[in-house]
Amino acid sequence: MEPAESKKSKASVRKRADLIKNFRCKNLIAIIEDPENPRNIGTVIRNVNALGVEKVYVIDPRRVLPDAWDELRADPKLAKLSVSAAKWTFVKRFDSTKDCLDHLEKNHFVSMVTSPHVKGKTNTFLHETDFTEHAKLAVWFGNESKGVSDIAVQRSERCVAIPMFGMIESLNLGTSSGIVLYEVAKQRREYQSKYRLRDRRGERATPLPTVIAPEA
Ligand SMILES: C[S@@+](CC[C@H](N)C(=O)[O-])C[C@H]1O[C@@H](n2cnc3c(N)ncnc32)[C@H](O)[C@@H]1O
User: Fold this and answer.
1) Is residue 140 within 8 Å of residue 112, measured between CB atoms?
2) Residue 3 — pLDDT band, cuts 50, 70, 90?
3) For residues 133 and 188, what is the distance between their CA atoms, to the nearest angstrom?
4) Is the distance from the beta carbon of residue 153 to the nearest atom of ligand 1 less than 6 Å?
5) Is residue 96 domain-resident?
6) Interval between CA 144 and ligand 1 midpoint (Å)
C-alpha cells in the first residue's frame, strides 16, 4: 500500500470513529451469561458494535476469554469471530453472575433479562417495553441451553420476550441479541436525541439526528 493511501485510510477510520461516537447509546450494556459457543460471543459483540450499544459484559465461568481488556481487544479468535468488532468494542469479562450483578448494582445499573419464557414477576413483550425509563440499563442474554439464571431473574426489574409464532421454543442467542438490542438502542437513541438529562429533562431545542446516512 502506498503511504498516502494508508494515511487516507487511517484518516477515514478516525473520521468514522469520531462520527459514530455521537450515536452510541450511553449507559447501555449487553450481558451474555455463560455462553458455551465462542461464535455466539463474537456475534453479540458484532451486534453491540453495529447497533451502537456502549459495552458488552461476558459472564465467563468457562474462561473462554482472556482477563484484561487490551488482551480481549487483541485476541485473534475474538477478532475473527466478531469480524474485528472486538477491536472497537468495550468488552469486560466476569467469573460469575453474582460478581457481574454486584458490579452493575454498585454502579446503579438496572437489569432486564430476556427469555422466550415467563420468568420472575414482570414480563413484557419487546415492542411494548419502555427501555428509556432507566438512565443506566443492562440487558441480559442467557446460556444457549439453560437460558438466563434464576439469580439474574431475581435481581432484574423485568423479563422481556420477543413474541414467537413458530413451533420452536426459542431464537438463538446471536439472533435474539440482534433483535432485542436493535429495539433498545433505537428507543434510547431517540431519547438521547431529544433530552440531555434523565426523566425527560433538558429537552434540546433541535433534536440530534438518530441515523447515519449509509455510504455509497
Ligand atoms: C437459545 S436461547 C435459550 C433457550 C433456553 N432453553 C431457555 O429456556 O431460555 C438463548 C438466549 O436467547 C434469548 N432468547 C431466545 N429466544 C428469545 C425470545 N423469544 N425472547 C427473548 N429472548 C430470547 C434469551 O436471552 C435466551 O436465554
Assistant:
1) yes
2) very low
3) 9
4) no
5) yes
6) 7
